[in-house]
Every structure is written in structure tokens, then in C-alpha cells.
Write a structure and sequence with these properties.
447 residues, globular, four-stranded antiparallel sheet, six-stranded mixed sheet, Rossmann fold, 29% helix, alpha/beta
Length: 447
């Protein structure tokens, strides 16, 4: 019976892998991290144009105050996550490994804008029009918190000629180790439901599905029960299969629709938002609170206290690690994100950003790259690619900077899930070179 149930769970049907889950912090309730002495807030925490700085050194700011405004449609406002005095406005290293313009603020107290509702009371009535909802989300600087950091108001602006019939809320969190989404589902179920209703109203749809992998049975049960009083919202348990949380894979699993090559979810009548983003939408519309904090998982096999923290944007990574017990002696690498799609940090002073879902500390023995051998043409990378690509060939094209052929082979369709590198018996850095190839194509397009 259990075997039949597992095989009835929905999933995508092309590729995928099953890395060890290691959800070490899944039972750790979120704790609020103490305010740091200062924060460093990057102005480019989103896909699109960086925001324009509107404060100067020496200015006093409050929590929630706009410190950089969006530049163009695909951009996002940046707000102060603390109260205090603006210090340096200069380039700093961020979690991507590049130097970007950021605003440093020295913390003084915790003085919030009076317009923000800081009470814990649930606000269920949605009185704003769809246009007002989109405007509030834009003003609040809400972006996707599942990793891509795409400005949320852009997703809600359906292009003329397109039709959306289903909203999908992504509660999959398929990346190993990470549990931030899991905890927010357990601790803010009604707020997520109201946030979902807000997004439904903005899109003009009557159907929403919350997709959750079946390794989070407590979240599935709680949200299923909670959804009973929210019309149009259902919860679907999904088979545990990485990368189930990819937008295109999730749409296929829940709706049986395939997003075309080079296409977007809106092309098949769906819009996808992460559960953390949905909670931020609730805060933006119902509480007038911008995106100034988020839940971040701090975890690893050797860390003393795998944890989930509410963290103000701009807080140095080292402060989260210290709160979880400090850097273990056997640490070989610290990653922003998870082991499959995350990026290694070379500085623990880099700030937490809107899309920082987790900090993973990997032991030295696991962090070392294995010796690379020649490709044996086993085809495993092709078998597991959820986009139906030929990763081994794309790696060669990327390495050789053959952008013309790489483009024809749909290298830009790669979602960078890392499944190819994960299964390669020759330990080849397939994803590294595919990412490089994609970056070369993008450079040519913007040149």
C-alpha cells in the first residue's frame, strides 16, 4: 500500500536525482538573531537593474526606510533593515564573489517607520485592488526568495495576450540541508494562505496549488488543514525528487504542462511564487512591511546547533555561524545556499541578502574536489538532466567559448541544478563550464 502511495505522488518526468537530504535543522524553530553592530546592504539583490541610492553618508535612517529606489521595471527597492546612521557607500564583496555597491549602516536602537504594523495579529481582509496590490509589492521591494531573486511585481504583471489560470506556491525546498521554507510553512500557515489569496487577487485567478515534497509531512498536513477555510487553495504532496523545486519541473508535476524552450511559466498559464516570498507579500500588503528580513538556515554535519534564524538583510554571515555554535575545526568550505546550487564564500563578512536561503558548512574531506578523469561517455548526465539537454557536450562548448553552438544546443535552458556534476563518474566540473558558457553568451548580448 505504501509502495503504491509513493508511486502515485506527482513529479516531473524527465531526469532528476536523489541526493542525501540531510535536513538537520528541520525541527529547529526559527529564532530571532540579535541585531548586529552594523549591516551592509547591497543595492543589487535582485535580477535586473541595481537600485539607485537615495541616502548619503551621515543620514539617519529608520527600519523600513527606502535607501535605494528601483531603476526601471525589472528592478527592486532596497530598504534599511535597521535604524542608525549611514556610513560608507562603497563596493563590497557579496555572496556571488563579486564586488558590488552597498550601503553600510551603523545600528542605533531599533526604531521602525510608524507606517509599519508590527503586531502579530492576522489580517485576513484583502481590501486593495489588484493594481494596488502590485504597487505595494513593488514599493516593498519583494523579490523571489527561492534563489532567483526575480522582482515579484514583474511576475504579477501578465503581458498582454497571455492568460494565467493557476497560481503555484513553491514549498518544495528540494535542495539538501535547507529548511527555511519548511519552518516558515510550519510557523506561518495562515499568513501564507492570506498571501496566496493576495497573489490570486492580483492575478485574477481562482485556483492556487501549494506544492510540497513528501519529506515534509508535517507541513503538508498543517497547510492542508489550514487551506480548508481558504477557497480555491489546495495542497499537493509531491514525490521527493531533485530538482522538484525548479519552476518548470514544478509546473509539469502539478499541471502536466511543459514550458517551451526559452519560454516562461506564463506561456503555459501558470505563475510560481516561493512560500517565503508569499509570506513577504502578506507583510507588504497587509502590514506595510518591506522585505527587510528573512529566514536563513545555518547547517552542516559538524556544526553544533543546526538552526533557522530570522535575520535582518545585510547582517554578516559570520554572525549567523557564531549563533549556531561557530565554525567547526574540520570546516573545508562555507556555501551560500545548498550543496547542489549554492556558491562557496571566500569571506564570512559578506552580507545576508534577500535571496540567501542558507549557510552550509561542509567538512574538509567532503569539500575537496575529486580527481577529474576523461569523459567515459556513459550518458548518465543526459539521463538525469531535467531539461533534456546534453550536459557533457555543453561543457565542452562552454570550455571552448563556442557560444554559437552552445546557443543552438539550448545552453540557456540549463537551470543549473547540478544534477549532471552530481552523477558524473569522472568527477568532471560540468556545471562550472556550462555556467561559464552561459555567462559568455549573456556578455555578447549586452555588449
Amino acid at each position: 500500500m505504501l509502495f503504491d502511495l509513493i508511486h502515485q505522488l506527482k513529479t516531473f518526468h524527465k531526469g532528476g536525482v536523489h541526493p542525501e537530504e540531510n535536513k538537520l535543522s528541520s525541527h529547529a524553530p526559527t529564532a530571532r538573531l540579535p541585531l548586529p553592530k552594523s549591516v551592509t546592504i547591497p543595492i543589487g539583490q535582485h535580477i535586473g537593474a541595481p537600485a539607485k541610492v537615495v541616502v548619503e553618508r551621515g543620514d539617519d535612517v529608520k527600519v523600513g526606510q527606502v535607501i535605494a529606489v528601483h531603476e526601471g521595471f525589472v528592478s527592486a527597492n532596497i530598504h534599511s533593515s535597521v535604524s542608525g546612521k549611514v556610513g560608507k557607500i562603497d563596493t563590497v564583496m557579496d555572496s556571488t564573489g563579486f564586488k558590488r555597491l552597498a550601503i553600510n549602516i551603523r545600528v542605533k536602537g531599533d526604531d521602525w517607520l510608524e507606517t509599519i504594523d508590527r503586531t502579530e495579529s492576522l489580517v485576513t481582509g484583502i481590501h486593495d485592488t489588484p493594481q494596488e496590490i502590485v504597487r505595494k509589492i513593488m514599493e516593498a521591494g519583494v523579490v523571489g526568495q527561492g534563489g532567483a531573486a526575480f522582482p515579484s511585481h514583474v511576475k504579477l504583471s501578465v503581458p498582454e495576450g497571455k492568460h494565467v489560470d493557476t497560481l503555484i506556491i513553491n514549498g518544495v525546498e528540494c535542495e539538501p540541508y535547507l529548511t527555511a521554507d519548511h519552518r516558515i510553512m510550519l510557523e506561518k500557515p495562515d499568513e501564507i494562505m492570506v498571501g496566496t489569496q493576495i497573489l490570486m487577487k492580483a492575478l485574477g485567478v481562482e485556483k492556487a496549488i501549494i506544492g510540497i515534497e513528501n519529506n515534509k509531512k508535517d507541513a503538508i498536513e498543517l497547510l492542508s488543514r489550514t487551506a480548508l477555510t481558504y477557497p480555491g487553495i489546495t495542497v499537493e504532496a509531491l514525490k521527493v525528487q531533485y530538482p522538484q523545486g525548479g519552476e518548470k519541473q514544478l509546473i509539469e508535476a502539478l499541471l502536466g504542462r511543459e514550458v517551451p524552450s526559452g519560454g516562461l511559466p506564463v506561456d503555459v498559464g501558470a505563475i510560481v511564487h516561493n512560500v517565503g516570498t508569499t509570506y513577504s507579500v502578506y507583510l507588504a500588503v497587509q502590514k506595510n512591511q518591506p522585505l527587510i528580513e528573512r529566514v536563513v538556515t545555518v547547517t552542516g554535519k559538524s556544526i553544533d546547533h543546526p538552526s533557522n534564524f530570522w535575520v535582518r538583510i545585510g547582517t554578516p554571515v559570520i554572525e549567523l555561524i557564531d549563533a549556531a555554535g561557530g565554525v567547526p575545526e574540520d570546516t573545508g568550505k562555507v556555501i551560500s545556499g545548498g550543496p547542489m546550487m549554492g556558491k562557496a564564500l571566500n569571506d564570512l563578512e559578506v552580507p545576508i541578502a534577500k535571496a540567501t536561503s542558507g549557510i552550509l558548512l561542509i567538512p574538509l574531506l567532503e569539500s575537496r574536489r575529486a580527481e577529474v578523469y576523461n569523459c567515459v561517455h556513459c550518458g548518465k548526465c543526459v539521463e538525469v538532466c531535467p531539461m533534456g539537454l546534453e550536459p557533457h557536450y555543453l561543457m565542452v562548448l562552454g570550455k571552448n567559448k563556442d557560444t554559437a553552438k552552445a546557443g543552438k544546443e539550448h545552453i540557456l535552458d540549463c537551470i543549473e541544478c547540478g544534477s549532471c556534476s552530481f552523477v558524473c563518474p569522472s568527477n568532471r566540473p560540468i556545471l562550472d563550464y556550462i555556467r561559464y558558457g552561459k555567462s559568455q553568451i549573456r556578455k555578447q548580448k549586452t555588449a
